[in-house]
Design a protein that fits this description.
Number of strands: 0
Radius of gyration: 30 Å
Order of helices and strands: HHHHHHHHHHHHHHHHHHHHH
Structural class: mainly alpha
Oligomer: single chain
Helix content: over 70%
Distance between the termini: 54 Å
Number of domains: 2
Length: 552
Amino acid sequence: MTTFFAIFGALGLFLYGMKVMSEGLQKVSGEGLRALIRNMTRNRFSGIVSGTLMTTLVQSSSATTVMIVSFVNARLLTLTESIGMIMGANLGTTTTFWIVAFLGFKFSLAKIALPCVGIGVAMIFFKRPKVRDSGEALIGFGLLFLGLSLLKKAVPDVKSNPEIFSFLQDWSDFGMGAVPIFFIFGIILTVVVQSSSVAGAITLTLAAKGWIGYEHAAAIVLGENVGTTITANLAAMTAGVEAKRAARAHFLFNIVGVLWMIPLFGFFAGFIDKITPGDANDPAYTLYHLALFHSMFNLTNICIQVPFVKQLAQVATKMVRKKEGSSEEGEHITYQAPNLPQTGEINLAEAEREIRGMAELTQVMFRGFNEVYENPDKDLSVRVKELKAMEERSDRLAFDITQYLIYCTSSELSRERLNEVTVMLRVISELEEICDCAYNLVRLAQLKYNKQRVLPEGTQEAIRNFCGPVDQFMTFYIESLTKKVTMADIEIAQQLEDTIDASRKKLRKEAVRRMSDQANIKSEMLYIDILNNIEGIGDHSLNILKLLGQID
């Protein structure tokens, strides 16, 4: 029992070190990650590269595939685009094997781990954020290797404690017949630890200690490729249809890989043995054989299946069908803490996309008001109901995005990103106010026609001219959400706001002058309410531009 608890403790330290290192690296390379997300969808090959790099960074294909599922759920990626990244994630997870093979058991890991922790702790006291974040990543790197060192010591070798893992040796006695047993063991192991990298580290440790041979360890590695798909499928359980399809595509990709490998397993393992120096069953060389086996299997699997990405997407689509009468329209980002990895820098991109969607919704609603106001002779009651539904949707969006952003701040974010989250929260509030103003305008337009309020000739054209700069302003802040806002942009925004203010004052004075006739009071009061709400949209638009200008 003492030995097993020591193994669990070492695994815990290894996993925690991986988490700390991943979060530190994300803060250091946050902007690089965001650029990666922007460029990941160019084609399936760039998707493979992106998936590989992301998994190399977070050191877990399970975490990467959960992120991909969340990207698809937020419509940052299409199903076809996500499959390329899933393929890359499988290749990226092999880097853990190479790190352990080259550094893991060659010499005392404490010689690496303790200096890394010591230097990292010193760095986190520096004032510069980048230095502190780098120090955090270094601490995580040290803890990871310290955990690996403790794992190496906790797992006894075959000679000193033959009873501890005797069941593994009993299985090994079946020879090649044991391959399916070890394959299933690999699936279960990965599902239990919820990380293919941790499962891989355990497999390498068992192989290095002589508990299992090369071919049986390779069978466990194949099982880990299937087991890692469970995490993404669990994450997709509460997500949308497209996210479920992405998770199924991940499962299909790995299952197809295993299916073609099973009949060729003996040949493939033998080929790797021939091209890798040293005896495959010598613990000193087994790790290199396993690392190459893992990499070559995933690389070959990608080469075989990459021409059939569309077909994989089609099969995944058939596996998860939309319910009759259901629609994904209106689905948006949701706070589901158990299903989202601790990768705030990446998850932040989902919130940004949803905010842009909310910004576009404000313009749709404002143009909806123009449509209702410009067509007094048409029955637009259905359109008014649609605009009412949009206003309710904007309220839900504001609540869900705010909750999601708060969740992102519970992850590790750089100072720049924390400032950006603060700005985004305030932008959401301004967008919600604009949606309220737009719906107020719709109600006022409807009231004007229902109550048959008559306005002087020319006011229709005045409202149309007044709305022009406001619509232009809305286009301006929508475009500004995806670029750096400069002082020149702020000056343009201020000029637009000044134009809107001047127009409102002029039109309001004319309305007040017409109110001298008692018969016009109610109509003119409604007209002034319309002007005030339109001008209010201009004020909120300027606030958005000023807020965006605060992002470094």
